[in-house]
Automatic annotation (TrEMBL):
Protein name listed in UniProt: NUDIX domain-containing protein
Family annotation (PROSITE patterns): NUDIX, NUDIX_BOX
Residue ranges of every copy of the Nudix hydrolase domain listed in the record: 16-140
Top-level taxon in the UniProt lineage: Bacteria
Keyword line: Hydrolase
Gene3D superfamilies attached to this UniProt entry: Nucleoside Triphosphate Pyrophosphohydrolase (3.90.79.10)
SUPFAM superfamilies tied to this protein: Nudix
Cofactor: Mg(2+)
Organism classification: Bacteria, Bacillati, Actinomycetota, Actinomycetes, Kitasatosporales
PANTHER family, alphabetized: GDP-MANNOSE MANNOSYL HYDROLASE, MUTT_NUDIX FAMILY PROTEIN
Keyword Hydrolase assigned: yes
Pfam families: NUDIX
Length: 147
């Protein structure tokens, strides 16, 4: 469970260096934007990705949202830092989540298979552990998503 400040305890997986990922939590009309990848089209995540060499979190966010969805984040703000287990790789994950918005309609590109706007209460949709266990509860507590 995430701490009140959005951080979560380490998964404690043998001292392995966590996989660093930056993502955006974009909520419109009580629904969160999630995406799936071609490598695992049945698992949904927040849009984002891994930093490139020398790239800071905001630079990563801007690049990934442009590559994956063709949008630019507006007014990004740090929402949470979460530690969990990466859904595909099964290794420790350190996720930096920014709350953001954007204009226009996102379209899946690059390695993305699909995108959806969810409340987080849908049945039959598989969510990544970090999203399911940390980000959704945080967004509900803050009133961004329905309880």
């Amino acid at each position: 469970m995430a701490h009140e400040d959005g951080t979560a305890p380490s998964p404690g997986r043998g001292g392995q260096r966590p996989l660093a990922v930056v993502a955006a939590a974009v909520v419109r009309e009580g629904r969160l934007l999630v995406v799936s990848k071609r490598a695992a089209p049945d698992v949904f995540y927040l849009p984002g990705g891994k930093p490139g060499p020398g790239e800071g979190p905001l630079e990563t966010l801007v690049r990934e949202l442009d590559e994956e969805l063709g949008v630019e984040p507006l007014e990004p703000r740090l929402l949470a830092r979460v530690e969990a287990v990466a859904a595909l790789e099964g290794v420790p994950l350190r996720l930096t989540v920014f709350g953001a918005r954007f204009e226009g309609e996102p379209r899946p590109a690059a390695e993305l298979a699909d995108l959806r706007w969810i409340t987080g209460r849908e049945s039959g949709i598989r969510l990544s552990p970090a999203l399911r266990d940390h980000v959704l509860p945080l967004l509900r507590r803050r009133g961004a998503l329905p309880s």
